[in-house]
Design brief:
single chain, about 240 residues, alpha+beta, Elongation Factor Tu (Ef-tu), domain 3, Threonyl-tRNA Synthetase, Chain A, domain 2, 6-stranded antiparallel barrel, 4-stranded antiparallel beta sheet, 15 strands, about 15% helix, binds zinc ion
C-alpha cells in the first residue's frame, strides 16, 4: 500500500467510550505505527494525543507514548511507540488499549471548556487540555471576568445534566455556525459538530462525555492577562 492511499479509520469519533480494539498494522516508520483503524485520539484542537499500549500476538507489550496526525496527510494517524521490535511490522495483528483514565479526564475537560466558551461572550484564541486542568484564551480587551461567577455558572451548567450530541454537517450547513474556536480538520466537505443540548453548538474534532454531569465539580483557578487584548481562563477539577 502506498503511503498516499493510506487512511486510518477514526473509531474514537463514533465510540469515544471504547478502550480496547484489535487492528492490523499498515505501516511502521522509525518509532511510529499506522493502524487500519484506531481509538487513539491524535493531538488536535487543544486536546492531547492518547497514550496506552499495544499487545502483540506473542505477548510483547509496547507502550504508546503519543498519537499525532500526519502533518501532510491528515487522514493518517501515527502512534508513537517506545520500542519497535521486528514483529511489529506491516501486516501484523495487535490488540491496543488506551490509558483510559487519562483520556476520560481529557473528555471531561474538553466538554467543560465548551461550556466555558458558551458562558463568555468573546472569541476564543487558544485552548489547552490536560489531565487535571484546562484553559481557554479569549480576545477580551476589557477585564470583565470574575473567577467566582465563572465557577458558579459552570457548576450550574454541569449539574443541569445536559446531554451532548455529536453530528456531522455538510459544508453548506455549517457556514451559519458560531465561529468561536479553531475549525477541526474537514474531510470530504463534512464538519463534525458538538452540541451541548440547550447550551452550545461548536465545530469540534475532540472526544466528549455523554452528559455534562460526568464532568464533576470544577473551579476557575486563575484569570491571567496574556496581552492587552487576551485573557486566559484556567479551570481545574475539584477532585483529580
Ligand atoms: Zn472542542
Amino acid at each position: 500500500m502506498s503511503v498516499h492511499t493510506m487512511e486510518t479509520l477514526s473509531l474514537f469519533n463514533s465510540e469515544p467510550y471504547r478502550r480496547d480494539f484489535g487492528a492490523r498494522v499498515i505501516a511502521v516508520v522509525d518509532q511510529a505505527v499506522v493502524l487500519e483503524h484506531t481509538l487513539f485520539y491524535p493531538t488536535g484542537g487543544g486536546q492531547p494525543g492518547d497514550t496506552g499500549y499495544f499487545s502483540l500476538v506473542d505477548g510483547t507489550r509496547i507502550a504508546v507514548t503519543g498519537t499525532v496526525r500526519d502533518p501532510l496527510l491528515p487522514s493518517i494517524i501515527w502512534h508513537q511507540v517506545q520500542e519497535c521490535p521486528p514483529q511489529l511490522c506491516t501486516g501484523a495483528l495487535l490488540n491496543a488499549s488506551l490509558d483510559w483514565q487519562r483520556r476520560y479526564q481529557h473528555m471531561k475537560m474538553h466538554t467543560c471548556l465548551h461550556l466555558l466558551g458558551a458562558l463568555i461572550d468573546a472569541p476564543v484564541t487558544g485552548c489547552s487540555i490536560s489531565v487535571d486542568k484546562g484553559r481557554l484564551d479569549f480576545h477580551l480587551p476589557e477585564m470583565t471576568l470574575d473567577k467566582d461567577s465563572i465557577t458558579r455558572d459552570l457548576n450550574t451548567l454541569i449539574e443541569r445534566a445536559c446531554p451532548i450530541n455529536v453530528m456531522t454537517m455538510q459544508a453548506s450547513e455549517y457556514s451559519d455556525l458560531p465561529k468561536k474556536t479553531a475549525r477541526p480538520p474537514v474531510f470530504q466537505d463534512e464538519l463534525r459538530v458538538v452540541e451541548i443540548s440547550g447550551v452550545d453548538i461548536q465545530p469540534c474534532g475532540g472526544t466528549h462525555v455523554h452528559n455534562t454531569r460526568e464532568i464533576g465539580r470544577v473551579y476557575c483557578e486563575k484569570i491571567e492577562k496574556k496581552s492587552r487584548t487576551n485573557r486566559r481562563v484556567i479551570l481545574r477539577f475539584e477532585q483529580a
